[in-house]
Amino acid sequence: MNDVILNKLHKIAMAFEDNGNEELANELHDVFLKLSAKKKRKSGNKPNDPALYSRCKSEVKSKFEVWPSAYGSMALTKLYKSRGGTYSSK
């Protein structure tokens, strides 16, 4: 959905620019950049040891009926870190 909004915003900014309303086009361009930057940041943290993470995930999933769940994700993170796992924010 964010892609649709960004595309529409870009088209509107181009239309303003074509009609000589560069001030509004610049304001929309700033909003466009802020939204696209937010979209890039949502990638989240990645485990540095995917094999350990996978083993921990399998173990935790067997203990929870509902997956994904907040409690399950919290348990996964706790187990992964307790076994020496670390995350990197890419």
Give a structural overview.
With 90 residues, this protein is mainly alpha-helical. It has two domains: 2-41; 45-89, no CATH class. The protein is 69% helix and 7% strand. It has four helices and two strands. The chain has helices spanning 2-18, 22-41, 50-61, 70-82; strands at residues 45-47, 87-89. The chain has a two-stranded antiparallel ribbon with strand order 1-2. Helix 1 (2-18) runs antiparallel to helix 2. The longest helix is centred in the middle third of the chain and has 20 residues, at 22-41.
List the defining traits of the structure above.
90 residues, 2 domains, 4 helices, elongated
How many β strands by DSSP? 2
The end-to-end distance, rounded to whole angstroms, is 23 Å
Percentage of helical residues?
Answer: 55-70%
Largest sheet: 2 strands, antiparallel
The number of helical segments is 4
Structural class by secondary-structure content: mainly alpha
Multimeric status of the protein: single chain
Which value, in Å, is the CA radius of gyration? 21 Å
Q: Spans with pLDDT under 50 lasting ≥5 residues?
A: none
Residue-averaged pLDDT: 83
Percent in strands: 5-15%
What is the molecular shape?
elongated
What is the succession of H and E elements? HHEHHE
Supply the number of structural domains. 2
Order of strands across the main sheet: 1-2
